[in-house]
From TrEMBL:
Signal peptide as annotated in the record: 1-28
Superkingdom field: Bacteria
Protein name: Uncharacterized protein
Residue ranges of the TM segments: 270-289
Keywords, in A-Z order: Membrane, Signal, Transmembrane, Transmembrane helix
Biased composition, class Low complexity, residue ranges: 132-160, 168-215, 230-249, 259-268
Annotated region described as Disordered, given as residue ranges: 132-215, 230-268
């Protein structure tokens, strides 16, 4: 009975091992996004999957960025001899044999392996792609290339801005002529009344300003008085003529009275004529004074 149980257990273990060997190879997923290159290294010692961050310039740089140490062939520096010291039996002087060398493969994001026709230092992998290396006779890595997604944007997309509204066109008015102002009492400013322009025609006669009649000057009064006095006082010869012209009467008394009457009437006429002359002189003086004042005001 025990032997049957042991036989059954061994058969189960063999079946599980067969199922494990038939399972699909593991997928390389070291890089979580397209910000890097996935590197797969497979040998008899195992399979390692790492991520070379950023955008390496070549497959050689991707291996070094992923943390692998590399040894080139001495006579062919562009050829790869060892990865992490494997195989230690190769002195790395000449090219390794076709049955024991590191074959180089590359694949796009989510694609399949392709044997590289370009040297390891001449291939520039794109971010998100995979590079694979397998030691042996030139078989592809058993691990599938990585399938990664683009990284989510870290910043929100900018919102579209509305088109700027057209600004209204402003029209400028011609500046108006400033109105003349005059300062009014109390600090107020009032607009001065516009003055009519003078016409080319000759101005009409302007009325002379009314002024109070000026009194004649002392010199005018003195001249008028002198004229009146000279006219009023008859000379001695005129008196003697009047007296001689009087008719002589028989009566000395009557003759004297006639002469006195004649002298009185002559004296009255002389005084009246002197007053008339004085009035005319005053009028002439006043008219002359007004004319001088009118000429001075113009």
């Amino acid at each position: 009975m025990l032997r049957r149980l042991l036989s059954l257990g061994a058969a189960t273990a063999l079946g599980a091992a067969a199922l494990t060997g038939a399972a699909a190879p593991a997928q390389a997923a070291a890089c979580s996004s397209t910000n890097g290159v996935t590197v797969v290294v497979q040998s008899s010692q195992g399979t390692q999957v790492r991520c070379a961050s950023g955008d390496p310039s070549s497959a050689w740089s991707a291996l070094q960025s992923a943390g692998f140490s590399l040894t080139a062939v001495q006579r062919f520096p562009d050829a790869l001899c060892r990865i992490d010291g494997y195989p230690a039996s190769d002195p790395c002087v000449n090219m390794p044999p076709a049955s024991a060398y590191w074959s180089f493969w590359h694949a796009p994001n989510g694609g399949s392996w392709t044997y590289s026709q370009v040297g390891i230092k001449g291939w520039n992998p794109k971010p998100g792609s995979s590079v694979g290396f397998r030691f042996g006779s030139g078989s592809a890595p058993s691990t599938r290339p990585a399938t990664v997604s683009a990284p989510a944007p870290t910043t929100a997309a900018p919102k579209p801005t509305a088109a700027p509204k057209p600004t209204p066109r402003t029209t400028t008015k011609a500046p108006s002529a400033p109105r003349p102002t005059s300062q009014a009492p109390g600090g107020r400013t009032t607009a001065a009344a516009p003055t009519a322009p003078r016409s080319a025609a000759a101005p009409g006669p302007s009325a002379a300003p009314k002024r109070a009649a000026a009194k004649p000057s002392a010199s005018a009064s003195a001249s008028v008085s002198a004229s009146a006095s000279a006219t009023a006082s008859p000379s001695a010869s005129e008196s003697s003529d009047v007296v001689a012209a009087a008719p002589e009467g028989t009566d000395g008394g009557s003759g004297g009275s006639s002469a006195g009457a004649t002298d009185g009437s002559s004296l009255g006429r002389l005084l009246g004529g002197g007053a008339l002359l004085a009035g005319l002189a005053s009028a002439v003086a006043v008219v002359g004074l007004r004319r001088r004042q009118a000429a001075a005001s113009v």
